[in-house]
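Fig. S4 source data, part A: sequence.
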Amino acid sequence: MPSTPEYEILQKPVSTVKGISERRTALLGRLGIVSLWDALQNFPFRYENYLEILRPDQLTAGEETACYGRVTKIEAKKTPLKRLSVVKVLIENCGSLAQGTWFRQPWMAERFVEGGKVIFFGKCKFDSGRGLPNFNSPKVTYLDDDFHPDDYRGRMLPVYHTTSDISQGIMRRMMGDIAKEALPLFREYLSPEVRSAHALMDLSEAARILHDPGDASEEVIGKARRRIITDEFFILQLGLIMTKRVLQRENYEAHHLKPGKLIVDFLNLLPFKPTEEQLRVLGEIKVDMCSDRPMHRLLQGDVGCGKTLVAFTSMLMAVESGYNAAIMVPTEILARQHYETMKGWCDKLGVDILYSHGGMKAREKKELLKRFQLEKPFILVGTHSLLHFGEEIPRLGLLVIDEQHKFGVAQRALLREKGSVPDTLVMTATPIPRSLAMTLYGHMDISVIKAPPKGRLPVKTYVVTPERLEKVFEFIRKEARLGRQAYIVYPQIDETDKRECKAAAEMYGILSKKIFPDLKLGLVHGRLPKEEKDETMEKFRAGEISVLVCTTVIEVGVDVPNASIMVIEDAQRFGLAQLHQLRGRIGRGALQSYCVLVDNTSLESGDDAQPLLDGMTENPRLEVMARTNDGFEIAEADMELRGIGEIFGEKQAGHPTFILANPNRDARELTLSKELAQNVMERYDSGIMGKEEKEAFLTRVALRYGSEFTLPGF
């Protein structure tokens, strides 16, 4: 799609706006604001309500209010017991008084001058003794002596994220200056009839109100937010439509046959029957692979649900049809584990299986390339090392990508950009809420396996405080004597920063010498040489090590059915998705398993604490983990608590970044955006768009995807 003059102007640096100096340009750059478009998208995260500015005698407890007065008293002291600094500032207006109080902020005393005019903004409570309204750490506006409250009264003031070198006042002025220049270029692309039918505000007007609400009511600001939220979803849905079109035009030559004897023989090998959900998903994959279009399917499955079984069966479908299949996984440990598991099956079925890893020598790679040239189909297992082969993998009929969010978009696309594209199955054990899946993977077909294999007991999860660790270690010792194994997970390798969290390497020494001198311990972390790491993991799998001290290197895919206990130290530092992944390493056999989350932010347990392996927490994320094993429920809670940008723990190119929108909260706008995107795309394709509408539409597309749309990932 072509670029537009409006797009080109909005890409100009903020320094082109009058009044934005070189220094301020650098400060805005720290906030990620480089272009006019960046600034226009930098919407306030809240507003201060100055529609009314009250005297102290007009205040109501518990309501967010602006209170104006002159400073009459400044008092700085320390509390008698804990010696905490306390600053109290008294303001007066027409004989009535109000107080602002700040704890642990002694510098606040220096920011006030007796007789100076200020506005306190926040919620107040009334002093039980004197009945004096008190603001606890209010926002303060310092005023000139000639200030009158009417200068502020009647306005909603935007509040932006800033740096320490930019005050809110300066930020508001800069955003206002930039918005005046940028807003005329950010034009509406929906027709008046469509906006009216769905009660949508004009796009440019909505952006103006959010940056400069003036005397707009909260209801009007809410309508402006809704328009921007719908726009964010709209442009994403548009990208999904265009992505589907690109995918449908791909060069696809694989023609898979319906599953035959090889699949039957494999299923007969298994000591159990696949679950109904596994069979349903295999049926969906079979339909895709036997069609005349390339498969683009996401398989979501909670930890331990049997995705590997589904992936292997799918690869056998390719092999039985005369094609090669490859599976790419994020870690060497997981790749080796997949290879060993699948090799056991392949040897019995007479199927060749190959292994690629990052440490391959030139001779090994040469032998692998030589094997590629033989006509007999094979299954190839590897890490990102598969990317080095690219088009050298002949007749690739199926590509499976495990834990796909661990790979960058460019890495994922590389294997598919060489000649004829294969069918593609991407898998994740990070459950994704349905609303988020619609935004991340709306261009793909989605399969879900929720139920774990029969016979597995839910992991019992407890949150404890550090004071309970001694009893937790006693429990591990007792279970180890029964032949069971445990993980103890730490958030870092060694004490390399100032954060007070225990480190794996340091604690390994303490645990092995002082806590468990009678048990065999092992240590695994990312900085260990590969050979040492693999050797330790193999000993743990074989039962030669009772307790594995580790970092999150064991997060994905490590399968030790005999491991029934996991202790996660400093659990408050982990995200919900990561905690759920870690917990998924246990409970993989018939044993009852236990996960203990050690919360260093909790209150002390006290003498009336619950029995062994129980505790208390103020952390809502850890409370969710203790309440449920359902990965999809956890994912919903994770999105609510942390927002979309943090779900995967890292930003991924191709993943949408929302400023105001939230798929979980704004489901109505998400659904509406799909309808709008389809409608606008049809108008564009049919050529019935007017000139101004078309320019506004093309500008909006270019602002999100660049002047030329490219496939953003799969």
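Fig. S4 source data, part B ends here. The CA atoms of residues 295 and 423 lie 5 Å apart.
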